[in-house]
C-alpha cells in the first residue's frame, strides 16, 4: 500500500533499525528510523482524580476541554484531501514503563509541533487511556485542551509507575501480562472520535509485555475482551494502531512477548498490521537507537489521506 512504500523510502534515507515487512511477505511490520533528534518538553504534573465508571470495569478521570482540528494534504493531482487528525495514546503504566513514559512526556510538544507543521487549519485532537490489569479512559473520552495538558499527564503517569499499583490505586500488580485488549477496545469504542470519513484516527499503543485475554480474572480484575473482538472494534472504527512493543519480556525477561504485536497471535494477524498501522521496537527507544517523536511523526505523516486498508 502507498504508506508502506512511503515509509520504506523515508527509512532508507534515515537509516533503519529493523526491516519493513507486509502481509505478502508473511511477517509483521516494523518501521524504525534510527536518527536521534532533539526533544522538547516540560515537567509539569496533573492532579486528576479517579472515579468509578459505571459502564465498565475501568476508571474515568476528568481532564480539560475539547478542540476541533482539521487537516488538509494533497491526495491526487487536481484534488485536495482534508482530514482531521485524532490521536489517542493507550499506555501501559505498569512498573517497567516509567522511562518510556518519561521520554514521551519530554517529546510530546515536539510531536504536536510536527503535526501542526502539516499545515493544519487547527490543532490535532488528543486522548489518553492508561492500563495495568485495569484501565482508565481519561476525561470521559473527551479530547485534551492542548498538548501541554497531555504532556503533564504523561509525566504524572510516568511517576505513577513506581507505585506498582493498579490504575485505580486499589491493589498491586503481581502479574506480567497487562490488559492491553480492554484498553484498546475502550479507546476504539468510547473515545469521542470525529467522523471516520473526514478523520485520520490513530492509536499510539505502548507495552513491554504480552496481554491478558478475556473473559478472565487477573489480580481480582475482570478482563472483558478477547483478541478477535478487539481487532474487530478497531477495524470497524477505521483506527490505525501504531504499537511500541517488545520481543522478549515476562518475569524472566526471556519469554517471547511478540504475538499479537509483531507476530501473529494464535494464527491471527498482529494488531498493528490488522489495522493498517505499524509496530516499533520499544527496546530501541529505551536504548537510544530509535527516536520516539520521529517514529510517531513519520507514522502520522505517512498515514494522512492514505486509504484505510485493514488485513484480515
Structural write-up:
The chain has one domain (2-36, 60-303): von Willebrand factor, type A domain (Rossmann fold). The protein has 312 residues and is α/β, with parallel strands linked by helices. Helix 2 runs antiparallel to helix 3, helix 2 packs across helix 8 (292-303) and helix 4 (180-190) runs parallel beside helix 5. Helix content is 28%, strand content 20%. The strands form three sheets. Strands 1, 2, 3, 4, 5, 6, 7, 10 and 13 form a nine-stranded mixed beta sheet that branches.
In short:
The relative contact order is 0.19.
Shape: globular
Biggest sheet record: 9 strands, mixed
Taken as a percent bin, the fraction of beta residues is 15-25%
Order of helices and strands: HEEEEHEEHHEEEHEEEHEHH
Q: Strand pairing plus helix content: what structural class?
A: alpha/beta
Poorly predicted runs: 1-76
Distance between the termini: 15 Å
Radius of gyration: 18 Å
Class, according to the CATH hierarchy? Answer: Alpha Beta
Number of strands: 13
The overall pLDDT average reads 80
Amino acid at each position: 500500500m502507498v504508506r508502506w512504500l512511503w515509509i520504506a523510502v523515508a527509512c532508507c534515507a534515515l537509516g533503519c533499525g529493523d526491516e519493513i515487512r507486509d502481509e505478502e511477505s508473511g511477517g509483521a511490520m516494523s518501521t524504525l528510523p534510527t536518527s536521534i533528534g532533539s526533544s522538547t518538553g516540560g515537567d509539569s504534573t496533573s492532579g486528576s482524580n479517579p472515579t468509578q465508571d459505571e459502564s465498565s470495569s475501568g476508571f474515568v478521570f476528568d481532564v480539560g476541554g475539547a478542540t476541533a482540528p482539521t487537516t488538509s494534504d494533497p491526495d491526487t493531482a487536481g484534488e485536495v484531501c482534508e482530514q482531521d487528525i485524532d490521536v489517542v495514546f493507550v499506555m501501559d503504566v505498569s512498573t517497567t514503563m516509567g522511562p518510556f513514559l518519561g521520554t514521551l512526556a519530554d517529546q510530546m510538544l515536539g510531536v504536536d509541533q510536527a503535526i501542526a507543521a502539516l499545515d493544519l487549519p487547527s490543532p490535532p485532537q488528543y486522548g489518553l487511556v492508561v492500563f495495568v490489569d485495569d484501565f482508565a479512559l481519561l476525561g470521559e473520552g473527551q479530547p485534551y485542551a492542548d498538548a501541554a495538558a497531555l504532556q503533564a499527564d504523561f509525566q504524572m503517569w510516568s511517576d505513577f509507575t513506581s507505585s506498582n499499583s493498579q490504575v485505580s490505586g486499589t491493589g498491586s500488580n503481581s502479574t506480567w501480562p497487562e490488559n492491553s485488549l480492554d484498553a484498546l477496545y475502550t479507546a476504539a469504542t468510547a473515545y469521542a472520535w470525529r467522523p471516520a470519513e473526514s478523520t485520520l484516527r490513530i492509536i499510539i499503543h505502548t507495552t513491554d509485555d504480552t496481554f491478558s485475554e478475556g473473559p478472565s480474572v487477573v489480580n481480582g480484575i475482570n478482563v472483558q475482551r478477547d483478541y478477535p473482538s478487539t481487532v474487530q472494534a478497531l477495524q470497524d472504527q477505521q483506527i490505525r494502531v501504531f504499537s511500541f512493543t517488545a520481543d522478549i519480556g515476562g518475569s524472566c525477561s526471556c519469554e517471547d512477548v511478540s504475538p499479537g504485536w509483531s507476530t501473529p497471535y494464535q494464527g491471527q494477524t498482529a494488531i498493528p498490521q490488522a489495522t493498517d498501522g505499524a509496530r516499533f521496537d520499544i527496546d530501541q527507544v529505551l536504548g537510544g537507537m530509535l527516536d520516539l517523536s520521529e517514529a510517531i511523526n513519520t507514522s502520522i505523516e505517512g498515514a494522512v489521506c492514505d486509504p484505510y486498508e485493514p488485513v484480515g
